[in-house]
């Protein structure tokens, strides 16, 4: 083949190849999607790019190593305690709940109602010398089952308090106490209504739910002024307090008495006292028990009661309601030990009635088993000066002396909230009149030596 023929053949092959490539490109353009980007060209110098990446990785590793803390040697690691997070408080916990009584109140504390209940269930056994009739009496009784309402209205300064009670004998409901209280910003406190005398005799001032024994003493039933109707003003400071109570006379608020304003036995009566705190806390003055966690405390009470008789009404016996009483009492408590002493005198102001009565009481207790077992003893002495009382309706007594001793114990399951009490009492002289709450019944004339065994279960909630 000549050179001319070879060149002719090469030209023909080149033209055919160009036509083939052009036709393939035309077909490829018909089937490839137009939005697919063309792939970039890969650099041929891959080695230099890999070396650059290695250098960057080495720099990053070096910087991370420099920021890491020093390693902790084994055995020197201190494990912190796990902190347990408490659940959030109930949003209503400040408005409803239980705090020594079930309560409901507004969040601003201006309105509150608290409800408490009490059950005192007792058994009495009484032995006495009798020439006729029964010389032994015993039985169960629901002594008290009140519902207590308290709280404040409009403001925490304006409070109320009332007790709905049922008669232990008939079951009839009645208002035992009911009063309103206003606390002034300067510390003065005003009370108005029907309530226990807070000034005369501490045994009467302390609630029956917080007594040391099963019940208040026979001494108290003789000399106490009882539940009264009237108004009082008081003020308490760090080391002393005073109380003045203007009222309608002894037992003017009793459920056994007619209580309308024209049926009172006295024109006016006043009870007043001063309490001095030598050391301790005023909260310890609210019962006769010393708890193991309470520090030493000592208090002194000086009190008087004056009653002016009702003159000129239809009942001439009311002209003989005049009297004056006085009392002094000392209280000491320290880490489970408690001692209390009381002395009282009473003088008749009735013309031609020269009667001067007096009496004394002392009691001690100690919590042998802290917060649980508390034995106690009590002694009472009363001089009647020939009569059961002063004023109207008095009766002569055969023996003016009365000596009573008592011993018993408390078992506290939940302090005053739930406790059991048992107590034995013996009167060495004639009991001149019955006091059913104490368990003592009137002796026959000339008889003495009465013994009472009483026990109680109390639930105060």
From TrEMBL:
Q: Tell me the InterPro entries matching this sequence.
A: Porin_dom_sf (IPR023614)
Q: Which Gene3D superfamilies match?
A: Porin
Name recorded for this polypeptide: Porin
What species is given as this protein's source?
A: Blastopirellula marina
Q: According to the entry, what is the taxonomic lineage of the organism?
A: Bacteria, Pseudomonadati, Planctomycetota, Planctomycetia, Pirellulales
């Amino acid at each position: 083949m000549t050179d001319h023929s070879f060149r002719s053949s090469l030209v023909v092959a080149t033209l055919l190849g160009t036509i083939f490539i052009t036709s393939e490109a035309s077909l490829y353009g018909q089937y490839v999607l137009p939005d697919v980007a063309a792939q970039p060209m890969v650099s041929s110098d891959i080695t230099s790019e890999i070396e650059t990446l290695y250098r960057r990785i080495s720099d990053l590793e070096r910087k991370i190593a420099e920021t890491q803390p020093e390693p902790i040697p084994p055995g020197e690691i201190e494990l912190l305690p796990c902190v347990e997070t408490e659940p959030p408080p109930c949003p209503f916990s400040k408005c409803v709940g239980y705090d020594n009584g079930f309560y409901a109140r507004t969040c601003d504390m201006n309105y509150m109602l608290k409800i408490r209940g009490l059950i005192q269930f007792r058994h009495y056994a009484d032995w006495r010398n009798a020439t006729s009739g029964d010389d032994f009496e015993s039985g169960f009784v629901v002594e008290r089952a009140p519902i207590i309402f308290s709280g404040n209205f409009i403001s925490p300064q304006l409070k109320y308090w009332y007790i709905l009670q049922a008669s232990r004998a008939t079951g009839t409901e009645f208002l035992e106490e009911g009063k309103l209280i206003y606390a002034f910003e300067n510390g003065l406190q005003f009370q108005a209504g029907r309530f226990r005398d807070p000034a005369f005799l501490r045994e009467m001032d302390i609630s029956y739910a917080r007594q040391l024994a099963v019940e208040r003493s026979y001494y108290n039933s003789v000399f106490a002024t009882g539940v009264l109707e009237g108004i009082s003003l008081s003020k308490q400071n760090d080391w002393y307090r005073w109380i003045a109570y203007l009222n309608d006379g002894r037992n003017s608020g009793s459920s056994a008495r007619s209580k309308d304003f024209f049926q009172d036995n006295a024109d006016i009566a006043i009870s007043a006292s001063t309490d001095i705190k030598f050391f301790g806390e005023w909260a310890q003055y609210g019962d006769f028990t010393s708890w193991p966690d309470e520090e030493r405390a000592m208090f002194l009470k000086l009190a008087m009661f004056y009653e002016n008789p009702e003159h000129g009404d239809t009942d001439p016996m009311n002209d003989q309601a005049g009297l004056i009483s006085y009392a002094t009492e000392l209280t000491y408590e320290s880490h489970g030990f408690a001692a209390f002493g009381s002395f009282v005198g009473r003088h008749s102001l009735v013309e031609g009635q020269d009667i001067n009565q007096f009496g004394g009481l002392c009691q001690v207790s100690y919590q042998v088993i802290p917060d649980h077992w508390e034995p106690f003893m009590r002694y009472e002495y009363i001089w009647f000066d020939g009569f059961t009382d002063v004023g109207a309706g008095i009766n002569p007594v055969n023996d003016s002396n009365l000596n009573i001793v008592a011993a018993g114990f408390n078992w506290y399951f939940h302090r005053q909230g739930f406790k059991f009490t048992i107590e034995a009492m013996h009167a060495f002289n004639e009991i001149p009149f019955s006091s059913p709450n104490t368990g003592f019944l009137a002796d026959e004339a000339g008889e003495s030596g009465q013994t009472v065994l009483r026990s109680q279960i109390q639930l105060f909630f």
